[in-house]
C-alpha cells in the first residue's frame, strides 16, 4: 500500500503558545482534491501552513509522502501558492522568469536551465492559459493573471501535491475558469490537491472532499456541503452528512 500524501494526526497548532487548532487530523491520499472551508479566521491557512512545516505543531504529528515532516527533504514534490502574494511587487520580472523560478528546487540554483526546464515552464504557462504573455512583465498583468502566474510557477516544479491558499480569491471569472482547467489537468495527471477556499465557483466539480474548520477543530470531513442559499430551494432535500449543528452562515459565500 502506498503512503498517504499527507497525514496530519492529532495536531495542535497555534502562534505564540496560543492554539488555533486542537487535535486536528487530516489524511490525503494520492489523486484527491480536498477543499478546506470555514469562516474567516477559523484556521484554514494555519492548517495548510502546519502541513508544510511553515507553522510548528505543538502536539501530534505530520507526515509527507510517508516521511515525518522534520525528516522530509523532497520539497520539490510539493508546490505551494500562499495567500495573497502579489507576483508583481514592483519587480520587473517577466512572466517566464517568475514561472521558471518554480524550477529552482528541482534543478539547483547553480545549474543553468536546460531543455526540460524550459519545456516545463512552457507547459505550465499553457496550463493556465498565459502562453501568449510569456515575455511580458508580470506587473502589466491583471490580479487574476498574476495569480495564474503563481500557480504556473508551482506547476512548473512538477509537484505531486499542490497546496493552494485561496487561489481564486478576488480573481476574475476568466482566470477562475483557466485555473479550474489547470487543476483538472493536474489531477488527471495523478496530482493531489489541498486548497483553501472561500468560494469554490468553477472549482466545485473538481473537489472530491471538503474539510470544514470550525471552532479550533475539523467540524466536517466528507462531501462538499451545499451553500446556505440552496436550503431555500423547494426541491432541496435537507440531508446533512456532517453535524447536527450547522455553523451559521458558513456557506453563504460559497
Ligand atoms: N502569524 C500569525 N501570528 C499570530 N496569529 C496568527 C498568525 N496567522 C494567523 N493568526 C491567527 O490565527 C487565527 C487563524 O488564522 P488563519 O489565517 O489560519 O485563518 P483562516 O481561516 O485562513 O482565515 P481567512 O479566511 O481570513 O484567511 C486567527 O485568529 C489569526 O488572527
UniProtKB/TrEMBL annotation:
Residues 224-254 are annotated as: Disordered. InterPro entries: AAA+_ATPase (IPR003593), ABC_transporter-like_ATP-bd (IPR003439), ABC_transporter-like_CS (IPR017871), Metal_Ion_Import_ABC (IPR050153), P-loop_NTPase (IPR027417). Residues 228-245 have a biased composition (Basic and acidic residues). One of its GO terms (molecular function) is ATP binding. Residues 6-240 form the ABC transporter domain. Signal peptide: none annotated. Keywords: ATP-binding, Nucleotide-binding, Transport. It holds the Pfam family ABC_tran. It comes from the Bacteria. PANTHER family: METAL TRANSPORT SYSTEM ATP-BINDING PROTEIN TM_0124-RELATED. This is Zinc transport system ATP-binding protein. It comes from Micromonospora humi.
